[in-house]
Amino acid sequence: MPGLAECQSLLRLLIARGDPKAIPLAQGAIDQYLNTAPACMRGRGLRVLQSDALDQYGAAVGVQRSFVETVDAYIERKLAEE
């Protein structure tokens, strides 16, 4: 899927940092993925990103967990729009 690997990689990096100021970067990466992915692949790609973020939740601490929760909520909103 176009841009999925790049988005996933960036989200992993941002989650690891856990900087709340980077939330707009995470949302932008997700939006960019959605803008470049074929319509029939968007929902599946969002689920891949969501699953990957939630996998990191178990190893996350403090602000990292909060970051994952925010990313998860954003992806849920985007899935609802699909």
Short description:
The protein has 82 residues and is mainly α. The protein contains four helices and no strands.
Describe this structure in words.
- This protein is mainly alpha-helical and 82 residues long.
- It has four helices and no strands.
- The longest helix has 19 residues, at 39-57.
- α3 runs antiparallel to α4 (63-81).
Topology:
Blueprint: H1 4-17, H2 23-36, H3 39-57, H4 63-81
Structural class of the secondary elements? mainly alpha
What characterizes the major β-sheet? none
Given as residue ranges, the uncertain stretches (5+ residues, pLDDT < 50) are: none
The average pLDDT is: 94
Write down the overall geometry: globular
SSE order, as H and E? HHHH
Helix content: over 70%
Please report the number of helical segments: 4
N-to-C span: 17 Å
Bin the strand percentage. Answer: under 5%
DSSP strand count = 0
Rg, alpha carbons: 12 Å
Provide tags for this entry.
82 residues; mainly alpha
